[in-house]
Write a structure and sequence with these properties.
single chain, 153 residues, alpha/beta, 7-stranded mixed barrel, 3 helices, 7 strands
Length: 153
């Protein structure tokens, strides 16, 4: 399984994460799912509503509702979300807190590691090892950044 993200989406996510630094940035991912690929064509930045946004994230529920409405009206799927780990030892992997507090077992995750105000790495994950409606782990999946080409006439 590949998580394919357009370069425009990647740039939006990276820019937003750096703008929110040193707080955790967060947002939603929209696109389409096929047999072998998850293709993200749009990201929606969100205010981090966590009580301590320097260590945790909580996506504004109003943005989730807007994304769900947009997805229905535009024949795309709400794929999941992204968030950053600024200066975190977790890097670009889900933290114990992330695993414990997942809100939707169908969401795919993009995690951006930021160290000293610079993007260090980014990874994609999908929920894995779900038992009794509880997540036990994430599975890292291949992240592909799709280069966009300009059309000239």
């Amino acid at each position: 399984m590949n998580f394919i993200m357009t370069s425009q989406v990647k740039n939006n996510i990276f820019n937003f994460c750096l703008k929110q630094y040193p707080k955790e940035a967060c947002g939603l991912l929209l696109g389409n799912i096929s047999k072998d690929n998850i293709r993200c064509t749009l990201s929606i930045n969100s205010k981090n509503m966590a009580k301590n946004p320097y260590k945790f994230f909580d996506i504004d529920v109003r943005n989730i509702f807007k994304a769900e409405l947009f997805s229905r009206e535009n024949n795309v799927s709400l794929l999941g979300h992204f968030h950053s780990h600024p200066d975190s030892p977790s890097g670009d992997t889900p933290s114990k807190h992330d695993i414990k507090n997942i809100s939707n077992l169908k969401y795919h995750w993009i995690i951006v590691s930021i160290q000293n105000k610079m993007i260090k790495s980014v990874s994609a994950f999908t929920p894995h090892n779900i038992q009794n409606s509880k997540l036990n782990d994430f599975k890292k999946i291949n992240l592909v950044i799709e280069k966009q080409t300009e059309k000239y006439e």
